[in-house]
Amino acid sequence: MSALQIRPATRADLPALVDWNAAMARETEGKTLDRAVLARGVAAVFDEPRRGFYLVAERAGAAVGGLLVTYEWSDWRCGDFWWIQSVYVEPAARRGGVFRALYAEVERRARAAGAAGLRLYVETENRRAQATYEGLGMARCHYFMYERSPLG
Asked: Membrane-crossing residues (predicted)?
């Protein structure tokens, strides 16, 4: 198996990022996303870097997965938490170290930037993902998440 390369996403990756987000929503929540809205949402990250950035994992020159990092200011820590979101790995590449390599790159960048820490959401029933995150040194926190969406 060839080595993984992790790189910043570019606008040329937009179709793959849209496809991966749509697939992730179907797989994890059974949701069908509006692809036009999704494409605008992905493009908006490239339009406004303050929103975050995408990373892409490649193996043998083919994109096999990616994720989004966004920022949340913490007044308690006077620093940004980096949120790992929109994680997707192509089914054929799963259990091959793709997420681990992406995570290592996020952690490296976060340390270099002086981030307060890393956070992510995980489905309550996704035990495999939870074990992966714990194996990377992440710990479950004591907060529940609430949402009101859409507003209007």
From this structure: none
